[in-house]
Design brief:
Layout lengths: L3 E2 L2 E2 L7 E8 L5 H12 L2 E4 H12 L4 H6 L1 H7 L4 H26 L5 E5 L5 H6 L5 E9 L3 H8 L10 H23 L4 E3 L6 H9 L2
Parallel strand pairs: 3-5, 3-6, 4-5, 6-7
Antiparallel strand pairs: 1-2
Helix pairs in contact: 5-8, 7-8
């Protein structure tokens, strides 16, 4: 693919494919950003939540594999401590990441540029990911504090006031995002504040050099 795009020059430097990964916790703007980039770059777009849902359906409720993937169920039940929920989220992400190299390779056979987003993208996985004839670029989005998560997810309440369980879930979502931030920096991956959302696309394009 050649030519210029709204977010910059997409010269691929001779590689046959490009994979752009957008990670971060819930409410950090991953999907909105990924959709915009895919549209501007005329790229394929893969929401990793779709893959996660398919994996849950394939293994079936009641199985040990389902229990690993069912981090949303654990969060809603509210029986886990923050540390236990964080460990559960990391374990679910590891399970999703285990199948991603084959999924990405398959998608890149039909999309020269592929944008993928999801909370399941672990920094250690991104740092070690190698795909034949494909360049990998990534950015992790984060909220500076739990208030940013609460504000981003408030529309999902449909105007209803937040209850204690919502506040707990916002805290646990932020904790996972903060953990991703620390891990990303340890692996030398770029991290961007989700706010202000109005400048996120431009800041992401600059960070991704696209």
């Amino acid at each position: 693919m050649s030519g210029s795009y709204p977010c910059g020059d997409c010269d691929d430097g001779g590689v046959n494919g490009r994979l752009i990964l957008i990670g971060g916790s819930a409410g950090s703007g991953k999907t909105t950003l990924a959709a915009a980039l895919a549209d501007e770059l005329r790229a394929g777009w893969l929401q990793l939540d779709t893959l996660w849902i398919a994996m849950k359906a394939a293994v079936g409720a009641g199985s040990s594999a389902f229990d690993v993937l069912d981090v949303d169920g654990r969060m809603h039940r509210g029986h886990d401590s923050d540390d236990e929920l964080l460990a559960a989220h990391v374990a679910a992400s590891e399970a999703v990441c285990a199948v991603l190299p084959e999924v990405f390779a398959f998608e890149l056979e039909t999309h020269r540029i592929l944008v993928a987003d999801g909370a399941w993208l672990l920094p250690s996985f991104i740092a070690d990911l190698e795909l034949p004839d494909a360049e990998v670029r990534s950015v992790i989005l984060k909220h500076a504090d739990v208030g940013g998560v609460a504000a981003a997810l408030a529309p999902r309440l449909g105007g209803r006031p937040a209850q204690d369980r919502h506040q707990r879930m916002n805290r646990q979502i932020w904790q996972y995002g903060d953990w991703l931030d620390v891990q990303a920096r340890m692996h030398g991956l770029p991290v961007l504040d989700a706010l202000p959302f109005s400048t996120l696309r431009d800041r992401a394009c600059a960070s991704l050099e696209i």
